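Q: Could you write out the predicted structure for this multi-component system? I'm mainly interested in how the pieces pack against one another.
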Amino acid sequence: MHYRRLTAVAALVLGSTLAAGAQEGLFAGKTIEVVVPFGEGGATFVSAKFLEPYLEKHLPGNPDLDVVSRPGGGSILGANWFEQNAKADGTTILFTTSSTANPFVLGQKGVEYKLADYRVAYSHPFSAVAYVSPDTGVTSAAGIRDSSKPLIYGGIAAAASDLPGLLSFEVLDVDVKSVLGFNGRGPVRLAFEQGELNIDYQFTPVYLTQVVPSVAEGHAVPLWTGGAMKDGVLKGRDPIAPELPSVYEVYEQLNGKPPSGIEWDAFQGIASVTYAYGLTGYMHPDTPQEVLDAFAEAVAAINADPEFQAESQKVTNGARLNAGPDTETAVKAALSPSAEVKDYLRNLLSSKFGVTF
Amino acid sequence: MIENALTALEALFDPVRLAALFTGMIVGMVFGMLPGLGGVAAVSILLPFIYYLDPYSGLAMLLGAVSVVYTSDTITSVLLGAPGSPASAPTAIEGHALAKQGQASRALGVGFLASMVGGLTGAAILFVAIPVAGPIVLMLSTPELLMFALVGLYYAASMIGKDLAKGLAAACLGVLLGVVGPAQAAADFRYTFGQVYLLDGFSLTIVALGLFGVAEVISMLAAGGGISHERVKVDHWGEGFRDFWKAKWLVLRAAIIGVFGGFVPAVGASASTWVAYGHAIHSTKDKSRFGKGEIRGIAASEGANNATVISDLVPTLLFSVPGGPAAAIFLGALFSFGYYPGPRMITQHPDLMFLIVWSVALTSVVGAGLCFAITPALARLTRIPFAIIAAPLVLIMVIGAYQSTSTMGDIFMLFLLGGLGWLMKHGGWPRAPALVGFVLSGPMEQYFWLTNQIYGWSWLTRPGVLVIGSVIVIPMLISCVRWLKARGRKAGPAPAHDLPTLNAPSHGIALVLAAIVAVMFAYALWETFSFNPASRLMPALAILPGLPLALYLLVRGARDFRNDFSRDANELWVLAALFVYAMAVWAIGLSIPTVVLIAWMLLVKARMRIWTSLIYGVAVFAVIRLLFDLLRGDAPVGALIPFS
């Protein structure tokens, strides 16, 4: 099996350099394996399946995509598998979220994958919306510090996908009690509906289908979004929920000046990997530029595909894919924060949340 | 509403959809019978195919698979004694004991009928999801869930058995296994020994297979070419029907327990099955037959596990929060078809909702019928020498275990825990409390921690908590009163709570096991000091009673020691061979060790003739490789020789 793979890789590498022009398309007759390091029912897996037909349609040569789930170790096992087994011709993709990126950035034990060395093929924003219970008396983002009740936030683990949410509370200097140890964001939302928790973050697709109905019924008050990248700063409004301010704007409103300092740098770094480039398809470090260009072109074609636009309107309020050099630069920058930011994060996590490194 | 229900029924009776439903059902039945492979594997194998179908057919196919897994797993559990799925471990205990007494058809009949009732109860609950089930799910906040876990623990106490020290030590050991991995309360990873593999803790499938399945297979292999017990005859179902009718209220109560288990997100069928089994022990006057083949134990656990998988769909459909692992995949499929379950699901897509209800109801009935039909043929398989069946069984368990993370760790862990289960079986430690401790320790810790964080201690006065708490307190008070009354008169014979293993325990193995467990607890205690205080509670709950108990058993074992290892030497060799197999797979990949293992099992253990074993062995190997490919796991590649 392994021998077969090695020869296949050799053939592909040779083939792609020698005979690129002769083929019908770069990926003609090939299968691209999309590795999702989470379980089969999870949001990442579903998103990978959602994108599958469009990539098949628009990549040159119409390859077959095979979405494979490799859960375990909070996504570390699947990413480690990718580190050891990925092919360098673009036919193995690691499709994952900040749950894989954060342990890498923080330098946690057991991480073997070198995420910052990987090439970035494409990325899908996966923004999150913060909302509170009306019982708190809070009616908008500006009133968040005047809650009539202590704010209780529910999460899974500080060092995983909860990190940007927790950091946003630090940036905005909101006093929130964080109860960590839930099984997933679904049970957290259920606890919010039951009145156990009164402030929550949900990723956009869930927000649109599950929380918006509660907002309409008056059971939830939306506050802000993580924001979108604008001129290299996470200050823009999120196109997915343009009526809500970004964390950046909320800070300005509360303090009368733009945010700065280590808290903001840490939030921006972690939040951009989590939200702006929430779901990212990574490739082997030695993948040829030609393959990445092909993906960038396919992404442009997908964004222009009316069928994709109609479907994404339903699920993500019309979010578009990102690809190309700018995206790659931004993702890599976010994955390699300054030593200062790293120290701040590690200190915060170990002093406030008892994380050991 | 009725109108929608009829439209949905009509929609389901489209030939393509019915075909899809029954295809799913057959896949589900096969996977239910294969130990270690269950709903999750069945649904993931079907997942790629559903996208070629229309949404209704695709979803019907998945539902067909989900709803029968816990019906057909009864067959394996009863006939072979290896649980077809983790949630049928109680059935394996009671049903296999009955099968050995020549009463397999009784056990199977009750099992199938109870499964059917469980499935139909689940379907009825889905039918009234909006008015009834939805509000109940919302009422079950963390404190109530904590109380459920405590009720489970209370019932589990009835499984301790006659040897109190061994039973309690086994339960503590189970809790200790359950706390491996991420702590709920603080960011500690407990007892992971720096292994990424252990970061998620042990998989339930592997623990259940290891503790129950592997030990059973070892006995089968050691029995060699002979048939170790009298022929299993499955012919007349009459007695089973009568037994079922006698236990009908118990089945219904168990199904309701199962339904509640389904309402709780991410608590699978295992927990509710054990609770229902505990309830059966509690509500049965003559407890002496539990562990030796008590039909009521089967009735309760089969009623519960099927109800759970189906009511898992209630939180899935109403709140988009999967109730269990198979429901999570189903949720993913719903998303892919453009359905977004949530409070609006029922008003937006009433037909889909009823289609789901009809699908699970129909498969529950047809599935049970089909199980009745195929069992006589399957029972004939048990006339084949056990070692011949054991050969593919070992490898299927390896595949089942390998589904958790598709790394070598799964295979090592299967055989390590298999070794532990084997020691427990022969050392006279009951394995049921260990599995219950394992299943409940996660939810108990999680809900205790969340409850305490959110409510402090005020949760104790919540009405729901009081109602659920009364399930524990009232029977306790009643038995207290009875005990006081009985003390006045001449005391009658005390109710016998014994769950003995059938063979007398080996003294040597009991001593070895006590020593191993004592070392484990001692090490665990030492490592506990490095945790955040909040992460220490649950390990302490296991270690503080566990360590003294293990030491006591060690002393007692040393006192009673007799060198009787030779009695089980035969099985010990098989265990050693399996360890060697795991090491060899790690070193040189799957194929070569598997071929050697098959050859060894068939030629040496089963003493088959060369030619027949060659044909059979090739067939087994081909099926195993095919299953690896179908389940989309790459077969393990050797670390020393990169060959798979």
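A: Regarding packing and overall arrangement: The longest strand of chain A covers residues 31-36.
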